[in-house]
Amino acid sequence: MTRPESSVRLDLNNPVFQDQLFALQKAERHAALNTLKKIRQLTWQQVYRDQGLKWEKITSIRPPAGIDALYSLRITQARRATAYRDGEFMRLLTIAPDHDAAYGKK
């Protein structure tokens, strides 16, 4: 009997992520929180397939030591967040000011 895959667990403790989340305008902050609430209800396989989140590997930035790869995901209609997977945790790092910034482009 296979064990059902558990839901994604969120790590929102990165101070940069928190500062950027709290700095969002009210409507955008609510949209970001709704996305985070949605992610908590998904399994990792659902995150990978979700067309709204658009979970994508970032190849233009070298990940920090100890992290296999960085990813971007749509956190609001206009913004993407960067994160990485650590076991069952999604560890969120930043909220980019615009789409290209998530990929290290100018």
Automatic annotation (TrEMBL):
<protein>
    <submittedName>
        <fullName>Uncharacterized protein</fullName>
    </submittedName>
</protein>
